[in-house]
Amino acid sequence: MFGLFKKKGPLPTFAPLVRDMHSHLLPLVDDGSKSVEESIEVMEAMRETGFEEICLTPHFQYPRFPNNVADLQERYAKFLADVEAGKGDRQLPRMVGCTGEYRIDDGFQGIVERNELRTYHFSDPKRGSDKGLLLIEFSLNQKRMGLEEVVFNLQMDGYDIILAHPERYPYYGSHSAVLERFKEQGVYFQSNILSLDGFYGEEAQHKAFEYLENGWVEFLGTDMHNTFYAQALRHASMNKKIIKLLENTEFENRNLVD
Ligand SMILES: [Fe+2]
């Protein structure tokens, strides 16, 4: 009876993804959100555009964001309570965890040695490695020597790897042999939704669609940082090409848990 008079419309654009697995909404730990209120505003846009659940992924980046897991988990617990207290009657996605986005840089080896890697797992326990899936990124301007080796060694060490926004590395072009090798090695790719809408420029947009067409991209992420990004997410949710993509492609987002 209750559902009878509910207005029915098309599902919001990103509803098929169910879950976002890349965002910087834990305030003041990286270049993301600056306050609980800002995070709430961004989350409202995420809910509106279809996300039911989100997992936070603060940067681990040396020396800019020297985060550590214990501190982040403490902040995350407080943040959950603050959001609950501050959201009022606004509809927000559920927060289902806080992992990290790990940059392969001079600080990374220390993070590995200190056992600071927080990973995702597949909800199906039969899938993936015991150590889980690690979200990594590379420098956005200059290619670091030996990246491929680091990725390979992590895999040898028992991690599954998700490479964040492969389309955003200018040193990997279209038809990149290195990216192709990563795919052959079983590295997962996560493209940014905003790349598909041209937020990071034409080159990233072009590559994002190309990698999707290659069948290389298993995950889509918002990489939300602040309200400016939230506005861009609303814009992307009205992009016809993106709407069609979401209707016709199945992504793995919903199968990940913290
Ligand atoms: Fe990010």
Taking the alpha carbons of the first and last residues, their distance comes to 37 Å
Order of helices and strands: EHEEHEEHEEHEHEHHEHHE
Spatial shape: globular
Number of domains: 1
Query: What's the arrangement of strands in the largest beta sheet?
Result: 3-5-7-8-9-10
Strand content: 15-25%
Overall mean pLDDT score? 95
Number of helices: 9
Question: What ions, cofactors and ligands are bound?
Answer: fe (ii) ion
| Low-confidence blocks of residues | none
Mind summarizing the main beta sheet?
6 strands, parallel
Broad structural category = alpha/beta
Q: Helices and strands in order, then pairings?
A:
Elements: E1 19-20, H1 36-48, E2 53-56, E3 59-60, H2 69-86, E4 94-98, E5 101-103, H3 108-113, E6 121-122, E7 133-137, H4 147-156, E8 160-164, H5 177-184, E9 188-192, H6 193-196, H7 202-213, E10 217-221, H8 227-236, H9 240-248, E11 256-257
Parallel strand pairs: 1-2, 2-4, 3-5, 5-7, 7-8, 8-9, 9-10
Antiparallel strand pairs: 6-11
Bound molecules: fe (ii) ion.
